Amino acid sequence: MRLNGRVAFVTGAGGGIGQQICRRFVAEGASVLAADLTLDAAQSATNGTAALPVQCDVTAASSVSAALERAVCEYGRVDILCNVAGGSTAADGPVTDASDDEFWRAIRLDLYGTFTVCKYGLPHLIRAGGGSVINMASMVALTPVLGKDCYTAAKGGVVALTRSMALEFASHRVRVNAIAPGITRTPRIEGFLVGNESMQRIADRHLLGLVDPMDIAHMAVYLASDESRSVTGQVMAVDSGITMR
């Protein structure tokens, strides 16, 4: 029980990665508030677990604040923030082709969403005497990928924000790290791969095959636990070696 007695707030809980993180956190003894844009999506992360589903739009400050207050009301504290909500779309592309709408969608969801959860969540961690923030970056923040300029800008911002907050809040015993997954075998990503030659070429560069969502969840447990008590400001690549190539 590496997270026994901890309370975790997980966004994007209904996605392939978010579901596995919620389940692993619960299995390690944490109380989990599973947040997603719709209650149905949040409930998909809690099936068969003791996690509590809640509707939360990470791009709306009032929604984030209310969801975090729900966690405190239910469990008395928050020790772990895990920002999984985000993702790229087929509308992304080079800066010369991508629309302004797609750029701001990526920034609003991936970067501002992370900022907002941290803005309203960090005071709860500080009141709890410290804790762990786990942000979800991406391989695109560490290695160039064609046709993903909007998503790359957002995830690069997440990496920079992670390091800045690690310095800012270390005195409060708050650790801030990021995970940078490679292409992860979720239902949404597998749909993108079908008939997409450029995506398949990127997938083929993964030395150990595509990443499994559980691989990301294992890293999240490590970063949430005391095993990583001296780790902060780091970007942990769980990418099957693609960023080496």
- CATH homologous superfamily identity: NAD(P)-binding Rossmann-like Domain
CATH architecture: 3-Layer(aba) Sandwich
Strand content: 15-25%
User: What's the assembly state of these chains?
Assistant: single chain
Summed up, the helix count is 8
- CATH top level label: Alpha Beta
- The side-by-side strand order for the widest beta sheet comes to 3-2-1-4-5-6-7
> What's the order of the H and E elements?
EHEHEHEHEHEHHHE
By secondary-structure content and strand pairing, the structural class works out as alpha/beta
How many structural domains can be distinguished in the coordinates?
1
Summarize it.
InterPro entries: NAD(P)-bd_dom_sf (IPR036291), Sc_DH/Rdtase_CS (IPR020904), SDR_fam (IPR002347). This protein is α/β, with parallel strands linked by helices. The protein is built from eight helices and seven strands, in the order E-H-E-H-E-H-E-H-E-H-E-H-H-H-E.
